[in-house]
């Protein structure tokens, strides 16, 4: 049984989600709040997966919300109305396990929740597109094969079709997408102290060896 | 300005030529000095005409060779008396000072004209010319520079004013285009989102499949609208607008299109229209053959070129056996080839169809 919570400031969506998930086997909705502190403030066990709206009306930063949920032991699936690419990339860097737009139908949403609960990445074409065409200087370096699978998946191909194009198995293609997520997380890890900073410089091969 | 100084210098060379022909025909040094002046002029003005601006080192060379050395050579060995203000070796100095005034910057002009003045003063002293002649010549040397500089200043000011007017006209044009696009969007919003919301508010049952489908379509339109306005500034891109039309017409036939754009280049209206026509054809094909109501469109810039894909996750086909995309193949290929693009079609049973449009091929 996967426990799921929804954090969204739109009540209509929260109610809809409750109706949607109530009849679903294997999923149980345990929380539904408008902010992250409300959800984590209770004494209940934190849910396995949190569906987190990217922009909340309490003015909280999406990255801070994602980190707080991840620190509490939840996996985070970000949902949003408009696929804003800069925000998608920031959310993945902050530790989100997937990103889907709200216009997906129920089966697609459930599949994404199950994927994330199993420790995988719920990659939507929108998320793949945001990473494939990320041209910030601080973007992580992706290998040509990773980039190809990412681009093909972003164009709307299924994972199977993207794998066939690249001449690899769907499982390998999935590994590539997971690796992209890991690289973004790695690049998004904050540098707190001078020692941390020195470590990062060494890792990135920027300093004198 | 280059032309004006060329004419000024030419007149001096011609004067020099006539004087030498009449009075100093048998003096090689006079011919040599005139030749040097001619060579220097050809170098300076030839370069200026080619590059559309004067080369500073060459101008200095002209000032030194033509302006400063020629009078000495012409006096010492060329038989010029240097006893009147209009003698050709010093006349050339005045055109040198004119060139210096329009091509050098700030105090360098004063320096060049000063150098010329000192050189000519010394040459006249050697020739023991009357002081009225020297004074008259120095005045014409300085006034040549001043006149040339004023003339040049006036022309560049007019040029700047013209540039500013052009920029204003372009900006007004861009504003008009943006305004027209906004009006377009307002009209579209009025016909779609506003009409639907009004109907729902008025009591239409929003849970019927038709209404929900319509809401989803219009939400997709709003989403694209937000993405497009956040991504670019300035004039609307022909390709962006043409693709939007293709998507809207497919949506009006109940196909849901997820469209994503990145760094679309500014293409000509012809290429944009051809790409959009091919996209329309590909989306029609999804609607008719794929057995799904969802399609994905991406357009990404690649330098000056663009890569457009239309993808579905529908039934697909085995390309080597059946070819239901025959119509698609023919129409898309033909339309794109006309403008120098390339279309490729890929599919496998159960894996949907991928149409790739590339421009240039």
- Estimate nothing, just give the exact number of structural domains of chain B: 2
Poorly predicted regions of chain B: none
- Largest β sheet strand count, sense and barrel closure of chain A: 6 strands, parallel
Q: Going across the biggest sheet of chain B, name each strand in turn.
A: 1-2-3-5-4
| Proportion in β-strands of chain B | 5-15%
Count of individual helical segments of chain A: 10
Q: Structural class of the helix and strand makeup of chain B?
A: alpha+beta
What percentage of the residues of chain A does DSSP assign to strands (E)? Answer: 5-15%
Write down the secondary-structure element order of chain B: HHHHHHHHEHEEHEE
Number of strands of chain A: 6
Helix content class of chain A: 40-55%
Q: What would you report as the Rg of chain B, rounded to the nearest angstrom?
A: 37 Å
Order of helices and strands of chain A: EHEHEHEHEHEHHHHH
Radius of gyration of chain A: 18 Å
Q: Quick one: which chains have the greatest interface?
A: A-B, 20 and 25 residues
Helix content of chain B: 55-70%
CATH topology label of chain A:
Rossmann fold
Strand order of the largest sheet of chain A: 2-1-3-4-5-6
Average pLDDT of chain B, rounded to a whole number, is 83
Walkthrough of the structure:
The complex is a heterodimer of chains A (209) and B (361). With 209 residues, chain A is an alpha/beta fold. Helices cover 51% and strands 14% of the residues of chain A. The longest helix of chain A has 19 residues. Chain A is globular, with a radius of gyration of 18 Å. Chain B has two domains: 164 residues, no CATH class; 155 residues, Heat Shock Protein 90. The longest helix of chain B has 71 residues. The mean pLDDT of chain B is 83. At the A-B interface, helix 6 and helix 8 of A face helix 7, strand 1 and strand 2 of B.
């Amino acid at each position: 049984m996967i426990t799921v919570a929804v954090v969204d400031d739109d009540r209509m969506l929260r109610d809809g989600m409750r109706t949607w998930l109530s009849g679903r086997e294997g999923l149980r909705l345990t929380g539904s709040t408008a902010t992250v502190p409300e959800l984590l403030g209770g004494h209940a066990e934190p849910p396995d997966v949190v569906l987190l709206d990217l922009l909340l009306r309490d003015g909280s930063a999406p990255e801070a919300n994602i980190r707080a949920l991840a620190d509490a032991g939840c996996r985070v699936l970000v949902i949003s109305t408009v696929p804003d690419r800069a925000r998608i990339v920031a959310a993945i860097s902050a530790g989100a396990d997937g990103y889907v737009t709200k216009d997906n139908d129920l089966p697609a949403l459930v599949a994404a929740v199950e994927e994330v609960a199993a420790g995988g990445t719920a990659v939507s074409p929108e998320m793949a597109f945001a990473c494939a065409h990320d041209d910030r200087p601080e973007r992580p370096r992706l290998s040509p094969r990773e980039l190809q699978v990412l681009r093909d998946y972003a164009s709307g191909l299924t994972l199977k079709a993207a794998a066939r194009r690249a001449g690899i198995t769907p499982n390998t293609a999935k590994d590539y997408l997971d690796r992209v997520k890991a690289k973004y997380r790695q690049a998004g890890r904050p540098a707190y102290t001078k020692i941390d900073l020195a470590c990062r410089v060494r890792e990135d091969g920027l300093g004198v060896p | 300005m280059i032309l004006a100084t060329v004419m000024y210098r030419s007149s001096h060379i011609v004067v020099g030529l006539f004087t030498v022909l009449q009075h100093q025909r048998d003096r090689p040094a006079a011919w040599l000095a005139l030749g040097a002046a001619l060579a220097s002029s050809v170098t300076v003005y030839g370069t200026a005409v080619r590059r559309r601006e004067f080369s500073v080192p060459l101008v200095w060379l002209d000032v030194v060779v033509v302006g400063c050395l020629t009078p000495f050579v012409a006096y010492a060995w060329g038989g010029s008396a240097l006893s009147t203000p209009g003698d050709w070796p010093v006349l050339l100095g005045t055109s040198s000072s004119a060139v210096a005034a329009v091509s050098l910057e700030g105090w360098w002009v004063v320096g060049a004209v000063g150098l010329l003045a000192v050189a000519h003063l010394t040459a006249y002293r050697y020739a023991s010319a009357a002081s009225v002649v020297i004074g008259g010549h120095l005045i014409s040397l300085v006034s040549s520079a001043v006149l040339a500089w004023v003339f040049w200043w006036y022309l560049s000011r007019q040029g700047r004013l013209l540039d500013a007017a052009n920029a204003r006209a372009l900006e007004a044009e861009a504003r008009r285009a943006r305004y027209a696009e906004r009006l377009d969007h307002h009209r579209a919003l009025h016909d779609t989102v506003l009409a639907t919301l009004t109907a729902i508010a008025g009591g239409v049952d929003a849970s019927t499949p038709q209404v929900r489908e319509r809401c989803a379509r219009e939400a997709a339109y709003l989403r694209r609208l937000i993405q497009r306005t956040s991504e670019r500034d300035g004039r609307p891109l022909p390709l962006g607008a043409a693709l939007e039309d293709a998507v809207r017409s497919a949506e009006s036939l109940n196909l849901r299109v997820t469209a994503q754009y990145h760094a679309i280049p500014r293409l000509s209206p012809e290429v944009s229209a051809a790409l959009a026509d091919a996209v329309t054809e590909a989306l029609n094909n999804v609607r008719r053959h794929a057995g799904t109501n969802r399609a994905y469109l991406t357009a990404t810039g690649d330098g000056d070129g663009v890569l457009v894909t239309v993808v579905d996750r529908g039934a697909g086909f085995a390309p080597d056996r059946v070819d239901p995309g025959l119509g698609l193949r023919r129409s898309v290929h033909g339309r794109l080839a006309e403008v120098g693009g390339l279309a490729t079609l890929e599919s496998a049973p159960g894996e949907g169809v991928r149409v790739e449009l590339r421009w240039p091929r």
